């Protein structure tokens, strides 16, 4: 809807017990286990979960041993699936694995990269990581929230985190691990003005009344998270079907990488299409997306623009991006061409440089496999720093 400068925009989030997020967390737990022992390991782990079953497949090349069944079971139990009555139990579910090594054809392009000089001429650059695949990657930031994220996805993640917290802390004793949130923000002339609606879906025990659940979740989840000034005629849809007992992998099959919009910007920004979880940092779907967020966030923090979206494009085995594109949606304070030049001058966007600068060969991934990879003020993530902002401002001529 777009009338008289009024627009409604909606984003969603899910809890760690959502079946797709269970899969993401298992895949990233496997990655973390390998990164902890073998930082040069190559990992592409895909997980499927369904009733009573975890299936892990993919390509892994490493010098260490990872006990995948144990990692999968521990992850499932940490999420909260510890009893058969929840429809899924980390102690009793089956865990199957089907793992191959990374394709030597892919490794060929990652181990050494090429830099295109002119025409068909190529110069081989040794000891420089090439992109693990072709791909387009987007990073985004805007000044709607302190963490420089769009308001709808920022609030949706905080609601999902709170939903998990009240379950784990037994503030609401009848909740189970699966859950979702959705926030619709009303924008007036491009600025958030109020929350139009909030949707919560919380898995629960069979005996609880719907009336009690709705009342308690409104009080201990919504009103604890959403600023009161934004709750202006807001409509609540809490367990709108009236019942959510069967959930998690029993209710739906989960797959790694199926919540890419939840993982990024809630649809507010474009998405390149590649998922993050289960991938080591030689995969630019992951590492370059983190770098693109870092660049965009520093541009907004430097007040060069109110919104910034950065697109990068890579070719397999080639170190430097094929294109760098900046979109500021008319909010730029200096020419966009100047911002693009500042990006190229201040940020090394080759995969090896990204991995080194952001210190990505560490076991840091499982913690971000749920509740978003960006805007996480509860975690110390290198791509969320704004340490380049002052340099960008000075080079842009915005400070004396």
Structure description:
The protein contains 11 helices and 16 strands. With 400 residues, the protein is of the alpha+beta class. The strands form 5 sheets. A 5-stranded mixed beta sheet has the order 1-2-11-12-13. The radius of gyration is 22 Å and the shape is flat. The two termini are 43 Å apart. The model is unreliable at 116-127 (pLDDT under 50).
Report the biggest beta sheet as strand number plus sense, adding barrel if it closes. 5 strands, mixed
CA radius of gyration is 22 Å
Strand order of the largest sheet: 1-2-11-12-13
Mean pLDDT: 91
Low-confidence stretches: 116-127
The quaternary structure here is single chain
Task: List the defining traits of the structure above.
single chain; 400 residues; alpha+beta; 26% strand
Layout of secondary structure:
Layout: E1 2-3, E2 6-14, H1 19-37, E3 42-50, E4 53-61, H2 68-79, E5 82-83, E6 88-89, E7 94-100, H3 104-111, E8 113-118, E9 121-125, E10 135-142, H4 151-168, E11 175-188, E12 191-204, H5 210-225, E13 235-238, H6 248-251, E14 254-255, H7 260-263, H8 284-301, E15 307-314, E16 323-327, H9 336-346, H10 351-358, H11 389-396
Parallel strand pairs: 4-7, 12-13
Antiparallel strand pairs: 1-2, 2-11, 3-4, 3-14, 5-6, 8-9, 10-15, 11-12, 15-16
In short:
The protein has about 400 residues and is α+β, with helices and mostly antiparallel strands. It has helices at about 20-35, 70-80, 105-110, 150-170, 210-225, 250, 260-265, 285-300, 335-345, 350-360, 390-395, and strands at about 1-5, 5-15, 40-50, 55-60, 80-85, 90, 95-100, 115-120, 120-125, 135-140, 175-190, 190-205, 235-240, 255, 305-315, 325.
